[in-house]
Amino acid sequence: MQNVLIGRATELSRLTVVLDTAAAGQAGVALLGGDAGIGKTRMVTELAERAEAAGFAVLVGQCAELGDALPYLPLADALRSVRGELRAELDARPVLGRLLPGGTDPGRESTSGLTQQQLFGSMLGFLGVRPVLLVLEDLHWADQSTRDLLVFLSRMLQTEAVCLVGTYRTDDLHRRHPLRRVLAELKRLPSVTSVELEPLDPHEMTDYLATLGGTDARVMREVVDRAEGNPFYAQELLDAVSAGCSMPDGLAGLLLSRAELLSDPAQGVLRSAAVAGRRADHDLLQQASGLDDLAFDEAMREIVSRGLLRLDGEYGYAFRHALLQEVVYTDLLPGERIRTHAEFARLLTARGGSAAELAHHYLAGHDLPGALAASVEAGRRAERLGAPAEAHRHFDRALGLWDRVPDAERLAGIDHVGLARRSADAAADSGDNHRAISQLRRLPPSAEVNERLAYVLIDTDDLEGAIAAAHAAVEAAPEGPVLARALATYARSLYWSERHDEVEALAGRALETARRSGATDAETSALITLATLAALAGDIPRAKELLACATAESSGNLAIDLRAIFNQARLQYENGDLAEAAVTTGRGVRLAQETGLNWSTFGTDLRFLRLLIHYVAGEWDQAEQVASGFGVRVGTPAEALLSSFALFVEVARGLPRVEERLSWLEPFWPADVTITSMGRGLAAEHALWRGDPESALEHALAGLDAHAPDDPAVIRLSSIALWALADLGRADGADALLERARVPAEVGPGTVRRGSMGPEGLAWLARAEAEWRRAHGRLDVAAWRAVVEAFDFGFVYEVARSRWRLAEALLAAGERAAALKEWELAVEVAESLRARPLATALAELGRRARFVSASSALLTAREQEVLALVAEGLPNREIGERLFIAQKTVSVHVSNILAKLGVSSRTQAAAVARRDGLL
């Protein structure tokens, strides 16, 4: 049942309180409402299991859609299941026995009301015999007699050990529904608890789908969007979509059955509303329906009262659920659908409706010229609004219509190649580089097309293809802005290639051509490339100067502006200017958000850089907050890239979601170097913290194999691989790994000799040197002190992690006092960061070193108080009462204590506390 309770802990807790109160001898009533399929039955099933475990008799009765034809139907249904001692009590009450098969109908035996009075009294006495959970399901179908019984029991149950639960569908309670009055009356009673199940949020729904076996991120996203938080709808859709079906018959039938209760005019209006979409304007819907004011208002009153449409805004309506709109629309006959769309297109044209709406209705109404023109205009408007994904969708639809529409270029106001390039740019801006490449490759080659193709290919790490396309662009480009862009992109494409030596001359030529022709975007692109060359050569002041020029004003190309800001922030970050890097990154992230380029290459890069800055600066709560926005269940390379960076703080804090995140990232490792580097490197660290150096070495070596020898990422991966070798007590391969770490620090692409690296790169190289010595069995104090000093540019966590090894080395050298000092500093940082794996490692070192005087520093004052009471053998509840804190808070403290002391049980924690003098 655990999967059903995702996102329902609060509601279940409220129901459990009513049950617990009943167990203590004070009867309670719970009314559980929610839309069909929202999870009411599953919730009461879980409650019933808890009730049975607590010794309650569980009686469940189901109402049926029969009106008042069968009085007390749910009560009779519940009593059928009575067994044991309750059966004898039931048999002793003839009035109740009449409800069972073969009994006399108590609702028809007398018109005096005496029989009902006797039945109610008998039921009250019956329920007082022993603890009982009585569940009456689907009260929206209850007959009058059952509603009367519900009111009676809710008022009269007092000291009986009875929990009465009634469920009902909120979406079936139209304005005149008889249950409405009853609910309003009951909710005023102090003994009644009202619980309404809201739709699950997207994260909860994704978790729920995962428990059902959902593994495809694209399918899960589609289901989450369509189900709108309803678990039953989600389960049905997941099964259907996984089988290649859009809508399961059972779900469609369920939704349509409610629409079929409407009068003919109301059904007609509902069908028109379905053609309008999820939302419809009052006047537009009335005109499309063809009804006069009075008839339309009556039809809408009927539809709204039955919960099919709801008021939306000041003057409109919206479907209660998107799936209802979908099934009503699908149920339309083809001719009916086309005519209604055409009518909406006519009405919207007269009213000056939005281009996106017009495009939709023109296309569905088979007006292809109108659809093409409106689609292009909708794409232009989406561009202006900073919505590149929508712009691409509109442009792509226009391209699909192009060959079917005479005089398409005149209608679109742009030629076919221009529109395709615009569509590809929008695709790239929305993060879909592969779609952009596909569109560009289908176009006739030209300088402009090849330059755009090369630019996007660079962002997918296809350098060979990028160089070929960029060279072709330069060869074909006329003098002027086109040549300037081609040269700038050609220079950028050669940066990491064997032809790196040609980059500076090409970038300089691009800069001159751009300034001469006024191509600001090409000028900015060339400046960025020249800045990266300067940084590679170690000329940081010049690199900063060039990037300041590149970011001084907009280039006219947002993607290039974001690239400039990212490179400026990265330069600041890599040189230890964390405060400046944070400001620059924040500016870039805001620009990406405001312009809709969040998922573009550099919009994505700026977001992960923001996380890294928080991580390095020791602002881990902020880093974890940023990481929580990076989806675990990823379906695109951009999502996977962000997800891989979330692992930094999650691995370092030992958070439980690490394993799930890694499992979703693994399919992306073969295709993307950065995702491989981050994912494999952090998977290796995770394995090392779990005591599995073999797996760690495998991950680190696989990450290394994905990189070119001169890539700076190799240094960190090599140091992790050396850490694994040292933990394995092996030196084989250590020399080769250290050599691999040294190459990027000395050699750049082509024949370039790299200038001085930034402080982080140098610190990782120092770590690799120290780990190499450890792999050879030497705990070198000087080497580890150099690592601490190297990371002390502001990398809080790595300083602490290096102090851990330095303390080890000092102990081996017999310098106990110095080791204790380094250990205490590391413990303090691990505690403040909540870096549990490091804290556990430090605790183990502290025990081996018998740092008795400092062991207490490992625990906070509150944790020491909790540990003392744990050692007394008190459970969490009593500890909470003693310290005036919540039981859940005690549980968190106990978990932290076990982790810090490196033990797995409370008994072991008490033993360690006594041994090390912590009590």
TrEMBL record:
Lineage runs: Bacteria, Bacillati, Actinomycetota, Actinomycetes, Streptosporangiales
**What region holds the HTH luxR-type domain?**
852-917
The molecular function terms in GO held by this entry are: ATP binding
Q: Which UniProt keywords apply?
A: ATP-binding, Nucleotide-binding
- A matching Pfam family: GerE
Q: Which domain of life is it from?
A: Bacteria
Query: From which source organism is this entry?
Result: Streptosporangium amethystogenes subsp. fukuiense
In terms of InterPro entries, this protein maps to: AAA_16 (IPR041664), P-loop_NTPase (IPR027417), Sig_transdc_resp-reg_C-effctor (IPR016032), TPR-like_helical_dom_sf (IPR011990), Tscrpt_reg_LuxR_C (IPR000792), WH-like_DNA-bd_sf (IPR036388)
**Protein name, as recorded:** ATP-binding protein
Q: Which CDD domains match?
A: LuxR_C_like (cd06170)
Q: Which PROSITE patterns match?
A: HTH_LUXR_1, HTH_LUXR_2
